Every structure is written in structure tokens, then in C-alpha cells.
Amino acid sequence: MIEINGIAHIQITAGRFEVSRDFYRKLLPFLGLKQVMDEPGGYYCVGGRTGVLISPPAPEHEGERFVQRRIGLHHLCFRARAREDIDALHGFVKTLDVPIIRAPQEDVWAPGYYSILFEDPDGVRLEMNFVPGKGVFDTEDKKVNAGSWRDPL
């Protein structure tokens, strides 16, 4: 058995690359990621031991939107260092003119789980959460409390 050291990078193919790149040019630096590439083939930022690359689609998929519940990615979630970061992100996202699916709230996943859920211009769901301490590993059974889970669709 091995133990991974996190996720190295995530690549999102944007249906409307120019619109999405403008969005991520604002969002990713706000999250503390540093731009390492900005070219016609992609916009790439790295920080917090994670890279995020936004790339253009194949010509036949130009203009398409992400569809929730299709095979593949459902959403991606960034981890915040402090609960206050979630509230700060909420204020920032409100300036970006994108759908906020769920304003900051506590949830059932782990004790103190606090998160926001919003979409990028192509409809890709983005979450940021804060979980204090060891999260689910601070619970007696060391499992996610999915009993009252509901999918925000």
C-alpha cells in the first residue's frame, strides 16, 4: 500500500474558453494560486500543493456547457485554511456574476463542516470547505455522516 500526497493538478476543459479564463483569472489568484501559464492552449495556476489548468475544448465541443450527473466529474472542492475564508470567498464570488448554488452553511459531512458551492461560467460546480481538526477522523466511528445527506443537484 502507498499513501498519496494530495491531488497534483486538475484540468477543466471550458466550453467557452475565453469567458472561463476571465473568470479563473480572478478566482484562482483570490484563492492564493499563482499563474504559471496563460496562453491560447490554457490558463494554469499552482498553489496550496494543487494545480488548476483551464483549457479550450475540441472545436466540435465549443460552446457546450457542463452537465451535472453525467459520467465523470460532479464537482471539485478546494479546502480552506479557516472558516472565515469561506465567508470571504462568498463575498468575492458575489462580484463574479455566476450562480451561487449554496451560500455558506454548515453541513453533515463532518463536525464543523462549513462550505460554499457555486458554478463557473460553464456550469462546473466549485466548492470550498473548511473542516476543523481531523474532520471525520475526530468522530467515534470515523465515517462520513451521510444519513441526512442531500445532493444540491
What this model shows, in words?
This protein has 153 residues and is α/β, with parallel strands linked by helices. It folds into two domains: 1-57, 2,3-Dihydroxybiphenyl 1,2-Dioxygenase, domain 1; 69-142, 2,3-Dihydroxybiphenyl 1,2-Dioxygenase, domain 1, CATH 3.10.180. It is built from two helices and eight strands. It has helices at residues 17-30, 83-93, and strands at residues 9-13, 34-39, 42-47, 50-55, 75-79, 100-106, 114-119, 125-130. The strands form two sheets. Strands 1-4-3-2 form a four-stranded mixed β-sheet, with helices on one face. A hairpin with a 5-residue loop joins β7 and β8 (125-130). The N and C termini lie far apart (35 Å).
What's the layout of helices and strands?
Blueprint: E1 9-13, H1 17-30, E2 34-39, E3 42-47, E4 50-55, E5 75-79, H2 83-93, E6 100-106, E7 114-119, E8 125-130
Parallel strand pairs: 1-4, 5-8
Antiparallel strand pairs: 2-3, 3-4, 6-7, 7-8
The count of strands amounts to: 8
Helix-strand makeup class: alpha/beta
Number of self-contained structural domains? 2
Cα distance, first to last residue? 35 Å
Low-confidence stretches: none
The CATH topology annotation of the largest domain reads as 2,3-Dihydroxybiphenyl 1,2-Dioxygenase, domain 1
CATH architecture descriptor name of the largest domain? Roll
**How would you name the CATH homologous superfamily of the largest domain?**
2,3-Dihydroxybiphenyl 1,2-Dioxygenase, domain 1
Element order: H for helix, E for strand: EHEEEEHEEE
Averaging pLDDT over every residue, what do you get? Answer: 91
